[in-house]
């Protein structure tokens, strides 16, 4: 167990996901904007000069970036494990995962394989003094890339592809009740740490499904991230109607940026707001997220891009399903938090109505 902990498997995955997120954001926004304005993702067919529009180009650029997610996660994991010498083997392992249709799972496994292999070579391969300068740029990348690529293709390729196909078939065959449960789980788990490690772990799982053509889970996660900050904004309005003061003045100011950030699918802006009443905020977020995730899965909101907030809606087969999921999430989160949040009132200030203590006349002395 101690040996397994020393590998820091989870830490390397979360590091790689943090590297991958800007690429997902950039590619996702390009696809969302391009397709929203009439473009088509021509990544598979290729762009032929004179036969595509500007919006086709945007959608295709973003689609190309998102199509390389197995490569990106593989390089990120390998780099996190072995540093610069891990980049080349991670790149080869990720390309091999794409070539054998091993998908996102293959990219993750290839990253670990390449990274730990490169690290093993660095620690155990002894070269003469004159050749040591070649280790990080030639020896380690060459040997680890060679071995990692072959292992991915000839050893891991078939079982990973088989597992991916099995998982895809199982999820495609889910009934309404099973989709409801899956939506509840994804929606509640992805928001409990507001973009932290749990969110990123669930995100990795949903990206695995996206690579297999199943769009609803990652759509559920992203719509929950979009709706939650807006829900806390709604809670402010509801609390005023209930004559409650649930936010400090600085938190009200934070809402002015957190809500627009939520519209664009950035949930971290709400963290300063929820920290003052964390337990109740987590309850409201988890319940709202579960409801939003369930609506997404049951109605089949299926964004073609894994990021973008409201920009995801035009890429869905039925945009109204995503809009309804956001609305349900916002209303549940906002109403629940407005009701259960602590009423701060004039906490921290003296009660202006409190009468001053009467002076004791017997204590007055006249000299």
Structural class: mainly alpha
Low-confidence stretches: 348-357
Distance between the termini: 82 Å
Tell me the total number of β-strands.
Answer: 0
Summarize the biggest pleated sheet: none
Topology order in helix (H) and strand (E) letters: HHHHHHHHHHHHHH
Large-scale geometry = globular
How much helix, percentage-wise, in residues? 55-70%
Quickly count the helices.
14
Strand content: under 5%
Mean pLDDT: 83
Please give the radius of gyration in angstroms: 26 Å
Task: Report on the architecture of this protein.
- The protein contains 14 helices and no strands.
- By secondary structure, it is mainly alpha-helical.
- Mean pLDDT is 83; it is low at 348-357.
């Amino acid at each position: 167990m101690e040996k397994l902990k020393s590998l820091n498997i989870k830490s390397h995955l979360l590091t790689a996901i943090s590297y991958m997120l800007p690429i997902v954001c950039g590619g996702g926004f390009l696809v969302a904007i391009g397709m929203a304005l009439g473009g088509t993702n021509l990544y598979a067919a290729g762009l032929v000069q004179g036969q595509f529009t500007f919006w086709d180009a945007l959608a295709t650029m973003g689609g190309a970036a998102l199509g390389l997610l197995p490569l990106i996660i593989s390089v990120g994991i390998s780099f996190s494990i072995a540093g610069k010498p891990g980049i080349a083997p991670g790149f080869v392992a990720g390309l091999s995962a794409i070539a054998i249709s091993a998908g996102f799972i293959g990219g993750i496994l290839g990253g670990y394989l390449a990274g730990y292999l490169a690290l093993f070579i660095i620690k155990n391969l002894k070269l003469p003094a004159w050749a040591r300068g070649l280790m990080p740029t030639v020896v380690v990348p060459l040997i680890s890339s060679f071995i990692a690529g072959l292992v991915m293709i000839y050893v891991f390729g078939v079982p990973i592809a088989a597992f991916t196909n099995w998982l895809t078939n199982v999820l495609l065959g889910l009934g309404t009740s099973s989709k409801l449960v899956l939506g509840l789980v994804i929606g509640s788990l992805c928001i409990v740490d507001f973009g932290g490690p749990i969110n990123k772990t669930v995100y990795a799982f949903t990206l695995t499904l996206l690579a297999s053509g199943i769009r609803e889970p990652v759509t559920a996660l992203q719509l929950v991230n979009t709706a939650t900050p807006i829900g806390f904004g709604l809670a402010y309005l509801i609390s005023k109607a209930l004559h409650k003061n649930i936010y400090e003045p600085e938190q009200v100011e934070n809402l002015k940026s957190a809500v627009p950030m939520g519209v664009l699918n950035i949930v971290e802006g709400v963290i300063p707001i929820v920290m003052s009443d964390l337990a109740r905020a987590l309850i409201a977020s988890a319940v709202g997220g579960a409801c939003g995730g369930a609506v997404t899965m049951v109605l089949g909101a299926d964004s073609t891009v894994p990021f973008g907030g409201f920009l995801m809606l035009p890429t869905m087969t039925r945009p109204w399903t995503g809009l309804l999921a956001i609305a349900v999430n916002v209303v549940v989160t906002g109403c629940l938090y407005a009701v259960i949040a602590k009423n701060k009132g004039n906490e921290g200030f003296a009660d202006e109505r409190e009468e001053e203590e009467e002076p004791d006349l017997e204590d007055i002395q006249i000299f």
